[in-house]
Amino acid sequence: MGKSMTLSSLRVTVLVLALVHLAIGVLGFFFMPENNQTGENTVWIFSATGILDLLRTATGVIGLVAVLRPALISLYTWFVFVAFAGLTGFGVLSAATTSAGDAVNLNWADNVLHALTSLTALVVAIFTIQRTRRTSNAVPE
User: Fold this and answer.
1) What's the rounded Cα separation, in Å, for the pair 91 and 87?
2) What percent of the chain has pLDDT over 90?
3) What is the largest CA-CA distance in the chain?
4) What is the model's pLDDT at position 65?
5) Are 14 and 21 in contact (CB under 8 A)?
6) Which residue from 15, 24, 9, 14 is spatially nearest to 113, judged by alpha carbons?
């Protein structure tokens, strides 16, 4: 019972991550009018640019696939951890310098979302590895 409970909680966590990014990504495509100034395209408090919307939508769709195929959760979470850790680093530098002409246009809300996403993915990836080790070391009865 403990093993299935862990797997279901990992799947729910990945599902929440995927749905949040999918929702923000898809909504972002509707908030990108051509005549807006850079920095005015937002979904709630998050930036909406073409690059970010594609990244978030892809993260959401791939996350939904990983939820449907639990064997992919580990691969997905490691990928999300690395990608969003890098995006967080870039975003902090971008938001701190507020340089004009930044195509990604990250703000501090994006940086917090990306950092939390990265950390959550890392935690799920570690739990997935521990779960895999426990099931491979289990003695068959």
Assistant:
1) 6
2) 46
3) 67
4) 96
5) no
6) 24
For 58, other C-beta atoms within 10 Å of its C-beta total 14
Q: How confident is the model at residue 89 (pLDDT cuts 50, 70, 90)?
A: very high
Q: Are 79 and 65 contacting, i.e. CB atoms less than 8 angstroms apart?
A: no
Per-residue tokens: 52: 């970010």
24-40 in b/e form (b: 16+ CB < 10 A) is bbebbeebeeeeeeeee
Q: Where are the domains of the chain?
A: 2-136
Alpha-carbon span 32 to 40, nearest angstrom: 9
As a whole number of angstroms, the distance between CA 33 and CA 90 comes to: 25
* CA proximity to 24, closest of 96, 140, 107, 123: 107
Q: Is the pLDDT of residue 86 over 80?
A: yes
- Kindly state the tokens that stand for 51: 């690059």
Q: In the 8-state DSSP scheme, what is residue 46?
A: E
Range list of H helices, the chain: 2-30, 50-68, 73-97, 108-137
- Is pLDDT above 80 for 58? yes
